Amino acid sequence: MTARSLANTFLWVGLPLCTVATGAYFALAAIDTSPDIVFALIPLAILTCIYCVGLVIVVNRLRERVGLLVGEKKSSRRVERDLVTKYEDLQNQIELLSAMRNVTHIVNDAVEFRTILEEVMRIVADLTGALEITIFLLAEDSRKLLPAAHRTGEVVFFDDDIKRLRIDKRNVYQAIQHQKIFRYRHGNYIGFTIPLTADQEALGVLSTTLPLSGDIEEITTYMERCEAVLVSLAKHISLAIKTPLLYTRAVIDSLTRLYTKRHFQLQLSNYFNASRRLEKRMSMIMLDIDDFKPINDKCGHLTGDKILSEIAALIQKTIRQYDSAYRYGGEEISILMPESGMDDALLVAERVRTKIESQKFIGHDNQKLRVTVSLGVADFQPDLADPKTLIARADAALYFAKQHGKNRTSFFSSGEICLVEPKAGTAKTGSQ
Question: Is the full-model pTM beyond 0.85?
Fold first, then answer.
């Protein structure tokens, strides 16, 4: 028998019996004292029974009312809890949609790869509270997974700075090979490793480390929410990464890793128009490897490609941060120098020439080679009709340097081409 059954039995049987027994006891005591009082007690007994029945009905209804109020309160709490959960879910969805929109804006507003990676990791940290985030990308040549960016707290590391860090590479290769999400727990931390794929092309891996706190139910809910958020974000992150990669493939020469001629023409047009409109200075350098065909004929094209690639890397390290180098064609390389006059351009040109002259090149057969370059420099002048004229002047200066001994720098100035003598520092002049 349940507690509720016992309570009902007491209300309907026990309570009236107790009341009647109590009344009967006092009635018998009164009858012993005065026998005539029995006729007066009969109505009282009837009223007592009616009272008992009414009392039971009232108490039972009160009990039902209290039970109904308690049930309504429990139901209200349950509804309130469900509403809070739904509100939190909607809030999380709004934050996720906002994050996806921000990723899309980043791709549209920025092409610079570092900026995109940095902003993507900031968004992931804001959404999940991740302590550490690493984005691994597949190298196009070796197909190795290399850390492209790493965030610890508020600090983001790139390139050489990452090499000095101990990056956790747990499950990164398994994630990209099996296209599967991996997660592991270590103490009060949870790690997620998620493959980054766009248009069925494997791009890399997103690895995160998140803190855990609360009871088992809270931790489970948090882990499931973070995994769902990261999976949804991974799709947009993949597109955000692929966009600049496609752009890079379109404007970067695969051998030299310099910008292409097409990109050179676009940038030159932009710089030229800005110089004309805003009266800004601008210079360009045309560079050609001396006697490159004999090197190819004698040592083979593999050696020629190796030398061209090494010279391009040397130029990248030598020019200034805001200058840009391009593979103009074959073994010819151009350098654009915005907001730079002739003096600055000549300094950079001579620095490039001497660096290459002093560099020791090794062919594929371990043969030591000496390689030099000739350079022609021209700067923007108000009388220039179009960018092609600037290219023609730099090109003419380049071939003037080749005709006068090679391993030289020459420049176009005031209708004449002047040759910079590397040792004496004097200038040899020729008519244009």
Answer: no
